[in-house]
TrEMBL record:
Signal sequence coordinates: 1-18
One Pfam family linked to the record: Abhydrolase_6
Domain AB hydrolase-1: 99-266
Record keyword Signal present: yes
Name of the protein in its database record: AB hydrolase-1 domain-containing protein
InterPro entries for the chain: AB_hydrolase_1, AB_hydrolase_fold
Keywords attached to this entry: Signal
Domain of life: Eukaryota
Keyword Signal among UniProt keywords: yes
Length: 453
């Protein structure tokens, strides 16, 4: 082989090793007709708990009680997106996968940096299967516009944003991407699956395939999930990420000489001393356990001596589950995950809005006229959509997600895959990439492959 050809080949394979991604802020004109809710302002965590008490009360429909009317929401909002393509280009005829995260996370759910990205959906889809992907922070979440949490950030407005971005991908007007994608597959997780479903009902022609992960259409376990979450105001739960930058609390916390500003082990030392002063000797393992698995870990999360935190200053209608243990109950099934990724998930979690809680289980039509192929892909141990066992369908159907078949009367095909040994937060479990490989193969089988294989 000529040295030059060899060099070319060598550099090609080097390049072939990595996806190419860009962060893009997409201005989107949203247009949605949705509920106008009236609920008492949440002043603190106890008010958030009262909201959950009313919401889960067996004797009432709090969504209906809070419903004050309907309204049109219009306006331009910013959606933070990440566009990735194989290093051989964006193609033009391949499929772009539109990845829509669920509650409590953001677009990084699809590309977790944990353990050198070895849990990454995007690495698999782009590097191994040659797909382009676009993953967004849903409206209100992460780096997207933090709009009114009760009456703007609801499912219909978020679906509108997804609709507009889908049209940009098809029309070659997505910022920085000139390719016109003829095929868009919507891949959701949990609330992102709910929204993909709603999108397909809004305009069935806008999607070429639906992959609904972490989903069933059985809402039996939503109240138990809200109860588990023990919701607190996001700004109080992780003040350094979600609180007010003006709060003296932040600067005071960082300035206090005896309060650790940069690491949890420091806090172990501080707490250890405090307990000793009170005459109680707790060993470091117990102290670490207290910090890591309770809200204490959340309260100091984001502290960093060298890079000051930039809290998002979220209003009180942005809430989050209380701590690591609440996260585990809803999203993580032992022993199928690494506790370290659980801590990572807790430290990078995102809030949920009251408008989202109201519209998670309300407002989606019972059926969608969608005609393309549908894959429902849910971990067998999913707590939120299967109550912990998707196969416990009581004999009426093969699985709980299978009950959704009737919602897709016109679909070209409807398949359910129950992934063993994985809970609701699929990306956080050991076998996530093998699970995600099933999805890539399914898309290819449907004739919706990437540009480059
Ligand atoms: C995109 O944003 C993420 C999160 O801030 C950052 O880690 C990453 O380096 C950015 N990527 C590019 C290509 O700028
Ligand atoms: C609760 O009220 C909402 C709003 O009126 C309605 O859409 C929903 O169907 C009701 N849920 C039940 C279970 O009746
Ligand atoms: C896309 O398909 C058209 C028609 O088959 C073809 O002319 C064009 O070269 C293809 N583009 C790419 C980037 O493959
Ligand atoms: C990532 O790497 C860890 C440690 O090597 C391994 O235990 C885990 O199964 C891997 N996860 C995935 C999704 O490949
Ligand atoms: C977040 O959004 C701002 C503008 O809204 C933008 O300047 C910044 O690059 C974005 N960061 C990421 C990680 O997308
Ligand atoms: C603080 O932030 C810097 C830059 O992002 C990072 O390298 C460092 O690990 C952080 N320190 C802690 C204690 O998290
Ligand atoms: C949800 O699934 C359970 C268990 O299979 C079943 O008993 C119940 O009827 C289902 N509910 C709905 C609304 O389909
Ligand atoms: C991992 O997931 C794949 C795809 O569903 C499955 O075939 C395999 O049995 C799983 N492995 C384990 C150890 O659960």
């Amino acid at each position: 082989m000529s040295p030059i050809l060899y060099l070319l080949l060598a550099s090609y394979s080097l390049l072939a090793a990595g996806k190419q991604c860009a962060n893009v802020t997409v201005p989107v004109n949203i247009q949605a007709r949705q509920a106008l809710f009236n609920v008492p302002a949440l002043h603190g965590n106890a008010d958030a708990t009262y909201f959950a008490q009313l919401f889960t009360n067996i004797g009432r429909n709090y969504t209906d009680d809070a419903l004050a009317g309907y309204q049109s929401v219009t306006g331009t909002y910013e959606i933070s997106a990440k566009f990735c393509h194989p290093d051989r280009g964006t193609g033009g005829n391949g499929t772009v996968q539109f990845l829509i995260h669920g509650m409590g996370f953001d677009k990084s759910y699809w590309d977790l940096p944990f353990n050198n990205y070895n849990y990454s959906y995007i690495d698999l889809a782009v590097d191994k299967y040659g797909f382009c992907t676009v993953s967004i922070d849903r409206l209100g979440i992460g780096n997207s516009s933090h709009a009114d949490p009760l009456n703007v950030v609801q499912a219909p407005a978020e679906v509108s944003a997804i609709y507009e971005i889908t049209k940009m991908l098809r029309g070659g007007t997505f910022p920085g991407v000139t390719a016109k994608f003829h095929k868009v597959a919507h891949v959701g997780h949990s609330f992102g699956s709910v929204q993909s479903y709603m999108l397909s009902a809004l305009d069935p022609s806008v999607s070429d395939a639906l992959v609904l992960t972490g989903w069933s259409n059985n809402h039996t376990w939503l109240p138990q999930t809200l109860a588990d979450w023990n919701i607190h105001l996001a700004r109080l739960n992780q003040p350094l990420r979600f609180g007010s930058p003006a709060l003296d609390f932040v600067s005071t916390l960082l300035a206090k000489p005896n309060v650790p500003s940069n690491s949890r082990p420091d806090l172990v030392a501080v707490l250890s001393k405090a307990f000793q002063d009170l005459g109680v000797d707790l060993d470091n393992d117990d102290l670490w356990e207290i910090i890591a698995t309770t809200e204490i870990g959340d309260i100091i999360n984001g502290a960093n001596d060298t890079v000051p935190p930039v809290p998002q200053d979220l209003p009180s209608g942005y809430v989050t589950w209380s701590d690591y243990t609440a996260n585990q109950f809803a999203f993580l099934t032992p022993p199928f995950f690494d506790p370290a990724i659980g801590l990572f998930a807790e430290s990078t979690k995102q809030p949920v809005t009251l408008g989202e809680i109201f519209t998670l289980g309300n407002g989606a039509p019972e059926t969608t006229p969608f005609t393309g192929p549908v894959l429902v892909f849910t971990g067998r141990q999913d707590a939120i959509y299967c109550g912990g066992d998707c196969l416990a369908a009581g004999g009426d159907s093969d699985s709980i997600p299978e009950q959704a078949r009737t919602a897709f009367p016109n679909a070209r095909s409807f398949e359910v895959y129950i992934q063993p040994d994985i809970g609701h937060g699929i990306s956080f479990h050991y076998n996530s990439t093998a699970a995600y490989e099933v999805i890539q193969k399914w898309l290819v089988q449907q004739g919706l492959g990437g540009s480059y294989m």
